[in-house]
Amino acid sequence: MRQMHTTLTVSTHGQSLTECTHDIAEWIADSGIEEGVLTVFCQHTSASLLINENAAREVPGDLLRWLDRSVPEGDHYAHDDEGPDDMPAHIKSMLTGNSLTIPVIGGRMALGTWQGVFLAEHRAMPQGRRIVLHLLGA
């Protein structure tokens, strides 16, 4: 058994879904690990990770609009230290999650045909987000 880790930095452009599948897949391929378990962890409380459809261009916008309707800005949150999008971003992060566990089989993530790994940016301003990758396997 071996384990490896790295940190990816993802630049966001305000509220968006940024696909990270390719960068993660390259790192796994370079690791030489063929079979194992990948943990993907977002080190932020106002951004999150998700696995979702990466083929239809409309999906990210639909997901973001649904999150905005479900957790609107200006809903009289007590916490607004960093602006009106701060607390909604924390709630959206709580709903979507900050970590993923993905099997690695044959040196590749065992994702479904239309699945991709996305960083969900919940803040309005551009950010630099850190994602920790940890791979355990052989």
UniProtKB/TrEMBL annotation:
Instruction: Read off the SUPFAM superfamilies from this record.
Output: YjbQ-like
Q: Extract the InterPro entries matched here.
A: UPF0047_YjbQ-like, YjbQ-like_sf
Q: Entry's PANTHER family?
A: UNCHARACTERIZED PROTEIN YJBQ-RELATED, UPF0047 PROTEIN C4A8.02C
Give the family, as the similarity comment puts it: Belongs to the UPF0047 family.
Record-given protein name:
YjbQ family protein
Q: Which organism is it from?
A: Altericroceibacterium spongiae
